[in-house]
């Protein structure tokens, strides 16, 4: 759970009332090695905040992050250091995440050194650098090592950012919209690379996206987030082909082209049909989707739906009263 305090401007004056943004509430998820988990939702749904909480870039308001069952509590303590090494993040904009005045060699060397993976000799270092670039299919290494970020294409920059993350020898990659700023023609290549790395290095990957069609293509498991809460989860095939939650159905209906992984452009992110996501300062009571939901019942406006099993596909759930067994019999 993550709540941010904010102050609201009232007629130009800073109000004294402290308001709270309920950015993430009770999000419970498990990443597993060798598995891609997609976290899908509109912009403003809290999915990037989930990534930052998992990366320990921000403290939680409530709850716990665990690695192999060990809670990561004290910042700077030993579990914390082990954790930040094992859990690496890839950002949406590789141009912003790479320093323009430094070469590929500098970025990768630094990552290797910080995490103690640079070896002892300069030959070790060169081998490690070549190994990293080989893993992201930038070969031969000499062609790329002394280039600056602006000398690379967007796809090559994102590959360098991925190589840098791999320099820590991570178990978990948190990828926040890793292809949404890339040309459509090269998105598939980067997603295929991530999928390949997941297999070869047995990485646990969290793939954050607003493009549910790409989740079907790329992720093993899909979780759908709405207004700070998870609303549906299951294996990707089930969630995308047999969506249960009315919000997931809306996402799929409004996806521009479900057969391609192009998804919405940045401009289209957030422009979904059927109304707007609610304010997270005063989120709706009960089910947060009820003001937009075509199937809303009276209890939806007051009672928060728990995770309920859907159909006969194991692991498929929705936080929606439609799947309350009592609803079927009443
Ligand atoms: Fe719609 Fe009610 Fe289900 Fe929420 S709980 S998605 S309002 S039917
Ligand atoms: Mg985001």
UniProtKB/TrEMBL annotation:
Alphabetized SMART domains for the sequence: AAA
| Region of interest called Disordered, as start-end residue ranges on this chain | 257-284
Using the record for this protein, list the coiled-coil segments as residue ranges, or answer none.
Answer: none
> What CDD domains would the database entry show?
ABC_NikE_OppD_transporters (cd03257)
Q: Which domain of life is it from?
A: Bacteria
- Cite the entry's keywords alphabetically: ATP-binding, Nucleotide-binding, Transport
Q: Which Pfam family is one of those matched by this entry?
A: oligo_HPY
Recall the GO molecular function terms of this protein's record: ATP binding
Annotated ABC transporter domain ranges read 8-252
Q: What is this protein called?
A: ABC transporter ATP-binding protein
The organism encoding this protein is Micromonospora mangrovi
Biological classification of the source: Bacteria, Bacillati, Actinomycetota, Actinomycetes, Micromonosporales
């Amino acid at each position: 759970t993550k709540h941010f305090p904010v102050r609201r401007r009232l007629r130009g004056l800073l109000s004294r009332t402290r308001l709270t943004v309920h950015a993430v509430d009770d999000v419970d998820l498990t990443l597993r090695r060798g598995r891609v988990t997609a976290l899908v939702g509109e912009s403003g749904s809290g999915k990037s905040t989930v990534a930052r909480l998992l990366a320990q870039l921000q403290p939680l308001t409530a709850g716990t992050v665990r690695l192999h069952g060990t809670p990561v509590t004290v910042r700077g303590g030993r579990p914390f250091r082990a954790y930040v090494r094992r859990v690496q993040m890839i950002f949406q904009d590789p141009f912003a995440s790479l320093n323009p005045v430094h070469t590929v060699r500098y970025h990768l060397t630094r990552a290797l050194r910080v995490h103690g993976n640079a070896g002892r000799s300069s030959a070790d270092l060169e081998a490690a650098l070549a190994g990293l670039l080989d893993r992201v299919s930038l070969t031969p290494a000499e062609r790329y090592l002394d280039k600056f970020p602006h000398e690379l294409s967007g796809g090559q920059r994102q590959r360098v950012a991925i190589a840098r993350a791999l320099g820590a020898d991570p178990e978990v990659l948190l990828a926040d919209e890793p292809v949404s700023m890339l040309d459509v023609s090269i998105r598939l290549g980067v997603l295929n690379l991530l999928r390949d790395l997941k297999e070869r290095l047995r990485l646990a990957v969290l793939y954050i996206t607003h493009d549910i069609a790409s989740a079907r293509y790329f992720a093993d498991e899909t979780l759908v987030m709405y207004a700070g809460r998870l609303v549906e989860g299951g294996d990707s095939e089930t969630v995308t082909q047999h969506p249960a939650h009315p919000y997931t159905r809306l996402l799929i209906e409004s996806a521009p082209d479900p057969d391609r992984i192009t998804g919405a452009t940045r401009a289209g992110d957030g422009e979904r049909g059927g109304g707007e996501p609610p304010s997270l300062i005063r989120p709706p009571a009960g089910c947060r989707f009820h003001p937009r939901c075509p199937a809303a019942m009276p209890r939806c406006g007051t009672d928060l739906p728990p995770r309920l099993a859907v159909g006969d596909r194991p692991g498929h759930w929705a936080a929606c009263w439609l799947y309350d067994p009592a609803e079927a019999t009443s």
